[in-house]
């Protein structure tokens, strides 16, 4: 089993006259929390969207757990083993918290459409297992008591955790979090940090885009910093903080 979960190299992406990414690459090891930071417009979200199949790159190569993969569609990326959350919460608002996680879990089902229509014994057993696992994941992220509540009735912080539970339900090799702390108060951020630390302690691998520099510096094992679509620094947080290009481009311009 390879120690490298994600190896992305030479990613470039242009939108019309805008060069959004220029020869960007990252290597993430198993069990790491890896951060992607940079000022607004740096290309973080574009890079994230390329990795997770929302955008098609103009060039570059991708390996997931030592095997080549092509991020051509979000559902194919999820099947390959990358699950993501979004900066703007994308839950099924009128479904319960439990149902939201069960939707994520169904990507790993085997009984198929015929089994669902005929309500076969295999289908019923699989549905029971999905429900059980989904409840376990709700408990894991700290919102188990809201299993039967509609997603839209949960607090903002709890909706964020519900999204993470749904992502975990796909049994990902890598969970990619797009600004998970956005809009959170300090208490919610602390709870988020504890949850991500727990996910890492359970030998899962996390890629995180985040504007909260303090959170990232205290949580991530390694960081890549982008500016104007280019990679200007990579390394452990203590070294990145001292990088003059980073200070100039990001940390020294009112980053918080």
CATH class call of the largest domain? Alpha Beta
Our estimate of the beta-strand percent is: 15-25%
Give the overall average pLDDT.
Answer: 87
One letter per element, helices H and strands E, the order comes to EEEHEEHEHHHHEHEHEEHH
Q: Largest beta sheet: what is the strand line-up? A: 6-7-8-3-9-10
Helix proportion: 25-40%
How would you describe the shape? globular
Rg from alpha-carbon coordinates: 19 Å
CATH topology of the largest domain: Rossmann fold
Cα end-to-end separation: 38 Å
SS field, number of helical segments: 10
Named at the architecture level, the CATH assignment of the largest domain is: 3-Layer(aba) Sandwich
- Number of strand segments: 10
Task: Characterize the main sheet.
Answer: 6 strands, mixed
**Structural class by secondary-structure content:** alpha/beta
Q: Could you state the CATH homologous superfamily of the largest domain? A: P-loop containing nucleotide triphosphate hydrolases
Unreliable runs = 112-116
In short:
It is built from ten helices and ten strands. It is of the alpha/beta class and 256 residues long. Strand 1 and strand 2 form a beta hairpin.
